[in-house]
Amino acid sequence: MFILIKEFRTFLMRGNVIELAVGIVMGTVFTAIVTALVEHVITPIIVAVTGNASVDQLALQIGSAEIGYGQFLQAVIDFVLIALVLFVIIKVINNLSRKPEEAEEVEVEAPSVENYLEEIRVLLAERADTPNLSRDDRPLE
């Protein structure tokens, strides 16, 4: 029994489970924020412009059956509005959290092997107290 409790505690303390729990809680809270924004800000604007914000009462009567397609349309409209608001919020958060672009660094051309060899020749010539040899004065090999 003790081993089972120990394994369960190890399972709970793994990073993935804790991160998942935090993600679910944050998602729930964020959903409440987005839903409140849609219901209390976006929907009243739609009502002011169109005079009606709900289509869930729309239905089609076929014989004795009633097809309530308005509820489906309302669910689609709600989804699109919430997705749009979520998209805008995420774009704003990403823009605010993005680091300011650093000034473009000027690319300095890397010295070639010939430049390094020339520097080495100059240093060796100075050390030996001999005149600086140019490339044309090099001994042939």
UniProtKB/TrEMBL annotation:
The organism sits in which domain of life?
Answer: Bacteria
List residues traversing the bilayer.
20-49, 69-90
Gene3D superfamilies linked to this entry: Large-conductance mechanosensitive channel, MscL, domain 1 (1.10.1200.120)
Q: How does it sit in the membrane?
A: Multi-pass membrane protein
The task this protein performs is described as: Channel that opens in response to stretch forces in the membrane lipid bilayer. May participate in the regulation of osmotic pressure changes within the cell.
Relate the assembly described in the record.
Homopentamer.
The name of this protein is Large-conductance mechanosensitive channel
Encoded by which gene?
mscL
